[in-house]
Model the fold of this input.
Amino acid sequence: ANPPHFAFSFDSGPGKYRGFFWFYFFNEHLLRFLNLRYPRDYNTVPRLWFWLLNLVWLFPWSAYLVDAPGLSYRVDDRVGRVRRMTLCWAGVVMVFFTFSTTQEYYSMPMYPALALLIGSSLAQGSFRLEKANRLLLWFFSLVSAAIFLLVACMARSHPNPTGDISRALTQHPELYTLSLGHLRDLSWAAFAYLQLPLLLAGTACGICAFAAGLWQRNRLRSVGALATGMILFFQAARVALVRFDPYLSSYRLAEALEKAPPGDLIEANAYYAFSSVFFYSHRRALLLNGRKDNLEYGSYSPTAPPVFIDDREFSNLWQGPTRWYLLAYGSELPHIRQLLGSAKLYTVSSSAANYLLTNWPLPK
Done:
């Protein structure tokens, strides 16, 4: 469906189209591994952090890996052979990707192996795990106390925050290709909108502290309580995600578009910048300067739909007699105003510094 069928080249760059085979096997695998993929719309973490962050992703269970060096890995024992397999499994994944572009999630295929190893450590229950549980007890106790103190401060300084959380967030788009990039968006005022998820997270940490303290009396109940705390923490994250909905979702813009008079749609970015609008409204759009990132390669296919427009084409369409709607980030507005001026730029709706604009006034 997408010839040429067998293109072999290590040359990657703008405007070069060589079919699906080259794109998937050469560009997305070989060239990405060698950090030569085009476009380079991804980021990497230093190799030391690529290894150490796994302790964060698996926390609190990663604390029990302290017992792994003391386990038996004898080849004449079935349990020992399984443990040895988990080391080989995890080692192959980590060593292989250490020589590639180290993105955080590349290590995830080894987590089932580490889960087996952690489970084996918990089942054996050596003295090292007692030390690990004491550390977890202190850690979760301090974190739980800090969270409840933070909630108390927020309730006192920001008892009734107005509007949505987007008002209190900053933006650092240069960090968003990293898993934890959006953490920098948080400000002190943003925590006022997160009091319920913080209370849930503080309670979860309290349960985990109780679980760690329960270890010596009842190991099975300790593990069960730790799992319960982990599940509650996930619920805290889910509730927090709902709080971030006005910032992350474009549903409000989709609603406004559906209620507005008929017209054609343009998006001032790559498709996924406002993909939820297309999902909710079942609309298609022209993409203004959207030939970038994951869409760029396919946009040069001979069969690609003619949806990519540049500034000149956009300006001609916007100045014409047809009603157009434009989805744009707030950061795009200075460039758009420079192109068009403000005379034919009317705001239909806005949400968290994202805008739906039109070129003709709306009927009153």
Remarks:
- The chain has a mean pLDDT of 90.
- The first helix runs from residue 19 to 33.
